[in-house]
Each structure stands twice: as structure tokens, then as C-alpha cells.
Design a protein that fits this description.
With 82 residues, the protein is mostly helical. The chain is 59% helix and 0% strand. The protein contains 4 helices and no strands. The chain is elongated, with a radius of gyration of 19 Å. It starts with a helix and ends in a 15-residue tail after the last helix.
């Protein structure tokens, strides 16, 4: 595939100056608490969504998780976790 350096060079040629060390710094950074929590919740969110014929939206997934005793923010749902 493509390396980081050529991609940064192309982006710089289009006016987006991005240094390769910026990419590597972001890649090697420890995950945030939010991303760790999202990773923990993702299987549970997917399970609730799938168990309900994949028709539950954010609000219904949130309610189902709360009924199951899983504390989760309302904005967390099948389409809001990466």
C-alpha cells in the first residue's frame, strides 16, 4: 500500500501541511478514556441492536442497556461509536 511519507507529501502539495511525526505521535498515543469505554460498550450495543432485528435506534438501545443495568450515555448507540 502507501506509506505515510508519500501521503503527507501529496497532502502538503495540496496545501495541507502535515508532518509525518504528527501521524506517528497520534498513532502511538495511549487511547483516551472515551475510546476505551466505547470499545468496551461496542459489543453490548451491537448485541442489543442485532437482538432487536437491527431496527433499534440510539434511544431504544440506550433504554435497553439501562434496563440491563449498563450505564451508558444517551448519545451512545449503534451509529455513534466508531
Amino acid at each position: 500500500m502507501f506509506g505515510v511519507e508519500p501521503i503527507c507529501r501529496v497532502l502538503s502539495g495540496h496545501g495541507l501541511k502535515i508532518a509525518t511525526n504528527t501521524y506517528y505521535a497520534a498513532k502511538n498515543r495511549t487511547p483516551s478514556a472515551r475510546s476505551v469505554r466505547d470499545a468496551e460498550l461496542k459489543p453490548q450495543i451491537s448485541r442489543v441492536h442485532t437482538d432487536n432485528c437491527s431496527v433499534y435506534g440510539v434511544r431504544k438501545v440506550w433504554r435497553q442497556l439501562h434496563r440491563a443495568g449498563v450505564p451508558v450515555a444517551r448519545c451512545t448507540g449503534p451509529h455513534s461509536t466508531p
